[in-house]
Write a structure and sequence with these properties.
InterPro entries: PCD_sf, Pterin_deHydtase. The chain is an alpha+beta fold. The protein is 42% helix and 22% strand. It has a single domain, classed as Transcriptional coactivator/pterin dehydratase (Gyrase A, domain 2), CATH 3.30.1360.
């Protein structure tokens, strides 16, 4: 099981444009077109499945919200921060 990171480490390592929301990190990606957002959500889901670490993805008309946490660790881990970077690379 991965180790939960302490608050200071999460704050120090949190990628740009990501925010902390309790025991999760969250980012909202804006899109001009609904289908562009859906395509991005699909790419995020594929990366997550390859990494076997699955986010919560909310699809809205002009934005995609992604939330990451490690339930088994009770909070944010290295895996969450790593995936945040991989998702940003897909954008």
């Amino acid at each position: 099981m991965p180790d939960r990171l302490d608050d200071d480490e999460v704050d120090r390592r949190l990628p740009d444009d990501w925010e902390r929301d309790g025991d999760e990190i969250v980012r909202t990606y804006p899109f001009d077109d609904y289908l562009d957002g859906v395509t991005f959500a699909t790419r995020v889901a594929e990366v997550a499945d390859e990494e076997y670490h699955h986010p919560e993805i909310t699809i809205r008309y002009d934005e995609i919200e992604v939330r990451l946490t490690s339930h088994e660790a009770g909070g944010i881990t290295d895996a969450d921060l790593r995936l945040a970077g991989l998702f940003d690379a897909e954008r």
